[in-house]
Amino acid sequence: MRTSRLAAIALGAFLIGAFGPVSALDVPARPQGRGPTARYASASEAVRSAVRDYNAGDKEGAAQALEFAAKQGHPLARWKLGRMYANGDGVPHDDLRAFEHFSKIVDDNAEDAPDSPNAAAVANAYVALGTYFLEGIKGTYVRADMGRAHDMFHHAASYFGDADAQYNLARLYLDGTGVDPNPRQAARWFNLAAEKGHHPSQALLGHILVHGQKGVPRQPPVGLMWLILAREAADPVKDRWISELYEKAVDVASQSDRQRALQLLEQFLKRKR
After folding, report:
1. Distance CA 212, CA 74 (A)
2. What would the DSSP string read from start to end of 28-51?
């Protein structure tokens, strides 16, 4: 049930989502010369050009523009390059280069406030590094380090309030990975992410509450409510495990539990409007 490395790294939006839509009037003409010799008036200009190229399907051109912006210290350019190398998206798959881009973001922007324009990218960089530290990167200097993985997730979860970080941190406590198993702590972090609409967190929180765990008493109606929300948001193919948890919960829930879950769901949806 653990999400893949790429899913953990993803912010859930393309670069254009971080900048907003870009019209033809917003984008300067492509500078003369491609590759390392190409020059832009500014890092922001290079990023706008990269957005245009990426959306037009020219990922090579986008990567070149992003490399220029990244060398000028543009954190969102570094973030997008990190994602492209992690995913092999328009560039050769290279986890070490991705790791180094994410590391540079963390090194240069660790003091950014949680409401700063770059906060989402910085938080995601912490999550990406934490995910790499879980297993290390084979054949490189990046070794598995559970302590650093925990620290990366914890910082992004607590300081930035990042839902992916909260989910990953909760999984460490639920599975006892690098820490003593602590279902109560896991449920706490799952709950924070679940409130933000993070459906894997909703599913696992629901599972814990339906069945109960050490330190977490059974609350079948609440757990079933979370599982309903998770199932509705999940991909029926990729997230089949969520449907399976829901089906198991329904099997053990009483009729009154199901009715109460629907009441709680209605209250939750009203609160979120």
Report:
1. 46
2. PPPPSS-GGG---SSHHHHHHHHH
- Please report, to the nearest 10 degrees, the dihedral formed by the alpha carbons of residues 78, 82, 88, 91 taken in order: 30
Q: Where are the domains of the chain?
A: 183-273
Residue pair 229/192 in contact by the 8 Å Cβ criterion:
no
Single-letter code of the amino acid located at 151? D
pLDDT tens sequence across 12-57: 343 434 433 333 223 333 444 444 445 788 999 999 999 999 999 9
Would you state the torsion angle of the CA atoms of residues 173, 84, 16, 119, taken in this order, to the nearest 10 degrees? 40
Contact 265, 229 (CB under 8 A): yes
Length of the chain (residues): 273
Name the DSSP letter for residue 213. B
Kindly provide the b/e burial profile for residues 175-209, where b requires at least 16 CB atoms within 10 angstroms of the residue's own CB.
eeebbeebbebbbbbbbbbbbeebbbbbbbbbbbb
- At 187 the three-state DSSP class reads helix
CB atoms within 10 A of CB 77: 26
pLDDT tens readout for residues 184-209: 999 999 999 999 999 999 999 999 99
For residue 129, count CB atoms less than 10 angstroms from its CB and return exposed for 0-12, middle for 13-18, buried for 19 or more. Answer: buried
Please state whether the predicted TM-score (pTM) of the whole model is above 0.70.
Answer: yes
